[in-house]
Structure formats: C-alpha cells, structure tokens
Amino acid sequence: MLLKKVKMNKITTLFPDATYIRRRDKLISSAEQHANNLYGTKPKRIEGSSNKDHEQVLLAWGEKWNMAFHTEMNRLWNIKKKSPPSYCKCSICGDIHVL
C-alpha cells in the first residue's frame, strides 16, 4: 500500500494515500463479480444439514472465493497502476482531483 508521511505536532504518522485507496476501491466490484462467477455467492444452509456441516461448506467456499477475489484485485491493480491516473476539474472547488 502506498503511504503518506504526515507530520502533526512533531509526530510523523503514516496514512494510506487517498489516491491509491480511491483507485483500488474502483476495482472491488469487478473482483467480486469475478469471484462470484467462479464460486457463486455465499452458500445458503441446506435444509437438514448440521451446523458443523454448514460451517465446513462455508469455510471451503470462503477460502476459494477469497483467493479468487484477491487474485483478481491484484491482477486488476497491476494493470491499473501501469496506466496513468485520470484527472478531472472539480465543479465545486475548482481544484484538479485524481480519479
């Protein structure tokens, strides 16, 4: 993660870079859709199954879904970070913002 050093009251603190967060957050829906296409949405409990059986199903599904989601997020981010960021002029404050 990209971090920004911010000095406040003689203390330097590291904060996540807001531009990084905005650019990465835009990839979430695509990565979720990819994981859902591969492994479906969270499985519902099958009638008559025990709690233990359902927990095992959820755990197995969750491991696969999370791996697919994070792999896709990283793949998309590697593509995104190679492309230059987009900019726009804010109609409210007039400043230039990174999208």
Account of the 3D structure:
By secondary structure, the protein is of the alpha+beta class. The chain has one domain. Helices cover 53% and strands 18% of the residues. It is built from three helices and four strands. The strands form two sheets. The chain has a two-stranded antiparallel sheet. It has a two-stranded antiparallel sheet with strand order 3-4. Strand 1 and strand 2 form a beta hairpin. The longest helix is centred in the last third of the chain and has 32 residues. The mean pLDDT is 81.
Which characteristics define this entry?
single chain, 99 residues, alpha+beta, two-stranded antiparallel sheet, 3 helices, 53% helix
- Based on CA inertia axes, which overall geometry fits? elongated
Q: Percent of residues in helical segments? A: 40-55%
Uncertain segments? none
Using DSSP, what is the number of strands? 4
In DSSP terms (H or I, runs of 4 or more residues), the helix count works out at 3
N-to-C span: 17 Å
Strand % is: 15-25%
Q: How do the helices and strands follow one another from N- to C-terminus?
A: EEHHHEE
Compose a concise summary of this entry:
With 99 residues, this protein is α+β, with helices and mostly antiparallel strands. It is built from 3 helices and 4 strands; from the N terminus they run ββαααββ. Strand 1 (3-8) and strand 2 form a beta hairpin.
What's the arrangement of secondary structure elements?
Elements lengths: L2 E6 L2 E6 L1 H8 L2 H12 L11 H32 L4 E3 L6 E3 L1
Antiparallel strand pairs: 1-2, 3-4
Helix pairs in contact: 2-3
